[in-house]
């Protein structure tokens, strides 16, 4: 299993970013996927998840309406569109592989850094 995140950057408050996660080594289309983040000095926080067939998307309350998760099963890629970014969104963002029936973590990537600062 390999999960490679990209797209993190330094952005001003109110800005936008799109994170990508290129997946390989497993049948991507069969698995639930998520994004999680870890801010400096804090624990890992689950951010958003999407079912294997795209019918179920979920968000933690602090990002609802600002972040959008989506996937392209033909490209084995997971995305997270971040909009109206706030300083409190600063964190390392991780791509998380779930199971075939739920979001329980089975693997995680190395992360991509998002820094929101003026």
Poorly predicted tracts of residues: none
Helical segment count: 0
Q: Distance between termini?
A: 37 Å
Please describe the biggest sheet, giving its number of strands, its sense, and whether it closes into a barrel. Answer: 7 strands, mixed
As a percent range, the share of strand residues is: over 45%
What would you report as the Rg, rounded to the nearest angstrom?
Answer: 13 Å
SSE topology string: EEEEEEEEEEE
* Helix percentage: under 10%
What is the SS-derived class?
Answer: mainly beta
Query: What's the rounded overall pLDDT mean?
Result: 97
Record field, number of beta strands = 11
Please tell me what the overall shape is.
Answer: globular
Overview of the molecule:
The chain has 118 residues and is an all-beta fold. 0% of the residues lie in helices and 48% in strands. It has no helices and 11 strands. The chain has strands spanning 2-6, 10-11, 17-24, 33-38, 44-50, 57-59, 67-72, 77-82, 91-97, 107-108, 112-116. The strands form 2 sheets. Strands 2, 4, 5, 6, 9, 10 and 11 form a 7-stranded mixed β-sheet that branches. A 4-stranded antiparallel β-sheet has the order 1-3-8-7, with no helix packed on it. It starts with a strand and ends with a strand.
What are the defining features of this structure?
single chain; 118 residues; mainly beta; 7-stranded mixed β-sheet; 4-stranded antiparallel β-sheet
Summarize the structure.
With 118 residues, the chain is mainly β. The protein contains no helices and 11 strands.
Which helices and strands, and how do they pair?
Elements (H helix, E strand, L loop, with lengths): L1 E5 L3 E2 L5 E8 L8 E6 L5 E7 L6 E3 L7 E6 L4 E6 L8 E7 L9 E2 L3 E5 L2
């Amino acid at each position: 299993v390999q999960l490679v995140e990209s797209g993190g950057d330094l952005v001003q408050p109110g800005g936008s970013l799109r994170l990508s996660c290129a997946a390989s080594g497993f049948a991507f289309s069969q698995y639930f996927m998520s994004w999680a983040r870890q801010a400096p000095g804090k624990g890992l926080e689950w951010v958003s998840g999407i079912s294997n067939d795209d019918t179920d998307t979920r968000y933690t309350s602090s990002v609802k309406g600002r972040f959008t998760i989506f996937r392209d099963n033909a490209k084995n890629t997971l995305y997270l569109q971040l909009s109206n970014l706030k300083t409190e969104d600063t964190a390392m963002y991780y791509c998380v592989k779930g199971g075939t029936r739920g979001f329980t973590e089975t693997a995680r990537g190395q992360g991509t850094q998002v820094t929101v600062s003026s």
